[in-house]
Fold this protein.
Amino acid sequence: MKDEYNKMKKLLIPVILGIFFSGSLAVAESIDLEGRILLFDTSGNKGKKAKIVSMDQGRKISLGFPSPEKTDLTDTLFALHVKGIDPQLKPLVFLDGKSVDSSPVRRKDGLLYGLPCLAPEITRHTLEIKSPDDKPLSFESLDAFSLSGSFEEIHFDIAFSDVRIASQPPKHPSQDGYDALHYDLTLELDMFSTNLDNASLVFTGRATQDNLQLAALDFHPNGGAMTIKSIQDDSGTPLSYSIDSFSNWLLITLPEALSTSETFTFTIDYSGRPSTAGVWGAPYRSESHDGSRVIYTFSQPYGARHWWPCKDIPEDKATIDTHITVEDGYFVVTNGKLLSIEEAGEGKRTFHYSETYPIVTYLVSICCSNYKYVSGVYTSKDGATTMSVGHYVYPENYEAEKNGLIGTLEAMHLFVDLFGEYPFLREKYVTATHNTSSGMEHQTCTSMPERNLSPDGRHRRNVHELCHQWFGDSITMEHYDHLWLNEGFATYSEALYYEYYQGEGAFHNYVDNWVSTGISDTIPLVSSSADQFYGSVVYRKGAWVLHMLRHVMGNDRFFPALRNYYAKYAYTTALTDDLQKECEALYGESLDWFFQEWVYGTGRPTYSWNWTVEETDGSSVIKLNITQTHSGGLFTMPVDVKISDINGNSSTYVVWNDQKNQDFEIDIGDFEAFDLEIDPDNWILNRFSTASAPAPTLESVKLGSDDKTALVSWVSGGGATGGFQIIVTDDLSTWTLASKSVIDPATRSFTMKNLIPGKDYYFRIRSLSTTGQPSIMSDTYGLRTGSGKKVLIVDGYDRQAREDGVNHPWAAWHGRAVSSCGISFDTCTNEALQAGTFAPSDYDALVWVLSEESTVDDTFNSVESGIVEDYLDGGGRLFVSGAEIGWDLDYKNNGRSFYSNYLKSRYERDDSYGIYTLEGTAGGIFDGMNFSFDDGSAGIYFPQYPDVIRTNGGSSACLKYGGTYVAGIQFAGLFPEGTSGGRLVYLAFPFETIYPESTRNRVMCRVLDFFGFEAKKSGYFFY
Ligand SMILES: [Zn+2]
């Protein structure tokens, strides 16, 4: 059977993990689409078919697609996958008339373009693709899907590339013999090509050893396309040199052997066309956007040598001056302070920038285009210094991005508070738009993909790249093996920003998402493969290690340690050891155990635990055993233990877990422990394997014939149990144990006596394992005491437990609504009804709960529909609600005749056009009522696919979505084989999602009035 719970939302296609790097594969790694939003898919087999319109003899194609529903369009990025196209081609892509990412990721299965956020004001979008040449476009299919998680967004190219990147190139021995002090780089840009003419570099270095005779710079000759014209020393004397085109070294013979501390200067004149064979595309690019040109560079990790000779090794920082000449109308953005813009003749200008803070070569960047500047000012924390902060954006994006400084300045102030003053305060912080979908944290001038600042600069990518100015740029990892010192910090900063901006809940959600996105266990954080930029290691595990370190040290020591680390290593480079020492200094003792486990080691602990309470003299002690059941070594960690009472009041204790099998005693005084959770806030990268007992299922809650006893029945979840615990409440908020002692494991029912007339009672049950470990709680079922007409609530909703392993109170919410009308009720499962334990004929109405039930869980299976048919034929009353009933029974034809003849409806559409408001029809039972059900914002739950239906067989519409599309029907009369008149109300969305509760209750009372109950609150004046 098929379950289409999430339909387009969860696309179950074959999953191949490890999309990052996999050597020389013959085929591309598939992109896992599960959990992503699909905008369209021209192959049509995933339910979002879109029609391609071909124009200009196939040289241009176009397709339209609607905005995805219920998505925060200002915060969701998408990718376009052009499958089967020759990845060497580069067709131009336009979204809603604007060009997008012109540096697509080349994959073995085609091209992948980053798409910007969809403009929320546009509901139907147009995508166009134009052939880059005169040939018709040739490809297999197009699909577009949402990006998942910050790693894909921030390092789009890395995340989707299926081509293994090069590893750190070897150092020339002479590079250990001198220190780079200063670069003075002069370039003339040709906006229409990647040719560099008349480029020159003045290099100043200092010998760090005696007898230095040779200085090697890194330089990629691109098979001879990049040439050295001359190299001269500072007196103009030519120096001899050679090029090692295997290792990409420029070997320069110094005029005389130098001694330690002697400085030397030489000038290299060069020109040519840089290699395009960069790790993620060409390091030097000349492209266009919206009819204008842009030149930009992207050198990380080893691409600087492609366009300028330099000592391209992160451990050696230097300062740099740049003199960049370009034709009028273009603006150059590069590192450091802009000192001058001078006329250079022939309609050109020269931009002179000076980066006076030490910088590594991969952070040297040029962005040049017809930018529009969003200008702002940052004032230092001490109030003494002001600095320019701004965004250079493409003019066509100005409106969308003009408020980007809001988030930028907000995050900047936060990071200044957390880490210390902004590192490049004498200069600036800006971003400049470039054409690819990865951001890059160039020092003082981050390069940003288009429209990533919209609407207010709070996008995680903006936050991430800004944080890199502290960690990555000011402190740079000394070697790529320690890349997590850059990326782990920047990734964790995203969560820190959301913690500040949206609170603790958002913070924990953000962090938890890293685990679901995937954190690798198999590669140590510090390793020679760190420069493969594995998102699951250096980014997410790196961030998680900081997260754990924060919990181990506590906020009051962790953040000061980060400040000390930053203060000590700013403007230089660091290794993991340096961070460890700064943390230990404030922690007060060695953290070697932590770093060995989490940074240099692999794996994660799996915890299993059980607990009991021992009471003596009114005081209780928790006896807790924690066992690490994974096969590897011990993980020593402080572990949070949260102990709660029956109503959720809790205290958190910390135990120091340093044995694989360990017993703890926690004195809880007179606190009445009911639940115990390990690491409830998910501070530890771990797994759980606690064998809790399988949860029992409540079968029914029924009032005894004496009107004073409740009979609670259940079925066991299977397996051995140590017994059951039932809890009871009359208000769904304050619970007590229905029986102080644990109920015998062989028992399947419980009688509660001495009920008060006219009152609600709700029950839940859980089992205990043989070691006392509780299962999760069951659903909540109830009854109301009292005589007179009576309702049976049938809970037919199983999906929530199946999907999420959780329970639901929806049957109880129906009960409260019935009770609010002064009517008594019992509750049972649909299975109890099928088994004949309950006879519908004993009740004056059935209220059937189907919520979001779907095919796989049986929306009125044949037995149930037979019971309902007999009941209605015999003059019964049925109220049923659920979002998928029509889709399942009629559209999927799992009960079309029952649907049309007994639910008196026909299915029309699988969603309500995004409408979550309802109007009662004139003359219908809800006449005069207007109300809403949950559109995802009311905190109940979000039914994504409420059916639109049509009346059938004499029914009439009683409720319409937005007053237009039928959302509910009513019927009174004979059913097909009826002997006396029955009544029916069917709502095509879940009743429990109506809010507020007072409205929900009124809806129920009107239904019961229609059923002839003379509900307590009857009389339409009441409503
Ligand atoms: Zn980063």
